[in-house]
Amino acid sequence: MLSDERGLTTLEKLGVLSIIITILAFIPPVRGALGDLYDSIFKQIDPDTGEVTAFSIATRGLLITIVSVAAFLGSGYLVLYTNMGKRMAFLITGAATTGWLAIGSMLFVIYAPRGLRPRLVEGLNSVETRIPATALMIASFVLFLVFLAAMNRLEESEADA
């Protein structure tokens, strides 16, 4: 992307911010403060039982999910952004993600877990356990088609220009 007179783009600002955070992480007092902050949020101990609290477990899971999704989708978007521009990169990343979700949920519908069921789903039959995966498969496939149609429109508008 060509730079213009307005300054850094949002993606460039995020890159500069990540470089600054990485450099600050090498300074021992900053690293110690970040470690203390992590411990205070993610390693809270219940004084009565001595176990990690449910809040700490939930926030750790939420953080892991957010970082994983951001790394998975963001890395692909970043590579596409540098080569194709932001609109096409967004559409390709969206199509790839929803296509991946559709294929994964279709595989779950076909090859759902068999064998002993957990007690929490004890009254559900084999069709009822597949309903959420089927809904995700249908929604993902529809979104995949929407992204493909949007990519087609964008390519046609760029070809006309």
What's the quick description here?
This protein has 161 residues and is mainly alpha-helical. 72% of the residues lie in helices and 0% in strands. The chain has helices at residues 10-24, 28-42, 54-84, 86-110, 131-160.
User: End-to-end distance, in Å?
Assistant: 18 Å
- What kind of sheet is the major sheet? none
Helix and strand pattern: HHHHH
* Helix run count: 5
Gyration radius over CA: 22 Å
What would you call the shape? flat
Strand content: under 5%
Task: State the total count of DSSP E strands.
Answer: 0
* Helix/sheet category: mainly alpha
Unreliable parts: none
Bin the helical content: over 70%
Mean residue pLDDT: 85
How would you characterize this protein structure?
This protein is mostly helical. Helix content is 72%, strand content 0%.
